[in-house]
Amino acid sequence: MEPLSLFKKTVYFLLGKYKHLTKRAANFFFDLCYGLDTRHHVSIEVLGTDPTLCYGYEATDWISFKSVLKRLDIKSTDTFLDLGSGKGRALLIASEFPFRKIIGVEISKELCDLARKNVERYLQRKKAQCGHIEIVNANAFTYRVPSEVSVLYLADPFPGKTLDRVLNNLVGLVKIDLRRVLVIYGGSQFCGKFTAFSNIKELPSVSGYQFYKIYEFSPNPAVCVL
Predict the structure, then answer these.
(1) pLDDT of residue 134
(2) How far apart are the first and last CA of the chain?
(3) Sequence-separated (6 or more) residues with CB below 8 Å from residue 15
């Protein structure tokens, strides 16, 4: 192997390790500084929920998700929804932006209770831009997305069939309410399900954070209310 090629590979490897360790440290201190419990994985077996409806809990990366939200033109009229909100970390990150309202929907009552505690502790210690955070214990399969929602987050929380139902419901509501909805998808295995719809368009990824896909759900653009 050429010395220059070996050097480049070594540099990329070390940069990757550095980025990974930086993220882990940030996630650790996020919980430590605010007295939270958001970073530990919870398996589907421990949750006791139906594995055909959802996966276990995995925390959203603080640095990456915040960077993605920074690139969006968030206004005080926007409402944020996290389907499969788990312990509420994404909700807390979203509270640092000027949303009108933040909603988390989670099928596990245990995780909902923990998320409410995390929200309470966080808001006691941090002056958030949006303090209106609501946690809903519900099944995303049957949950009706409120017409006020304009930014939706899916951290790859569902198996394919459940995601199909969620996407079909959302597409139908967008057509009825004549609104645009931005969807942030934190995954890769089901990207094809989004682009299968004619009124869903993939937007450019945030540089450096291509793991997150951003999709625009819209009715006929000529009548879309933004």
Answers:
(1) 97
(2) 54
(3) none
- In single-letter form, the type of residue at position 96 comes to E
pLDDT class for 76, splitting at 50, 70, 90? very high
Nearest to 57 by CA among 94, 85, 37, 31: 85
Contact 121, 35 (CB under 8 A): yes
Spatial distance between the Cα atoms of 27 and 130, rounded to a whole number of angstroms:
21
Task: Check residue 9 and give its pLDDT.
Answer: 53
| Domain residue ranges in the chain | 44-223
CA dist 102 and 182 (Å) reads 14
Instruction: Give the Cα separation of 193 and 212 in Å (integer).
Output: 15
Cα(82)–Cα(18) distance, integer angstroms: 29
In which residue are the tokens 């009825």 written? 176
Q: How many residues does the chain have?
A: 226
Pairing of strands 212-217, 200-203: antiparallel
104 touches 134 (CB < 8 A): yes
- Looking at the domain that runs over 44-223, which CATH code has it been given? 3.40.50.150
* Closest CA relative to residue 82, chosen from 73, 91, 74, 71: 91
What mean pLDDT comes out for the span 70-74?
Answer: 92
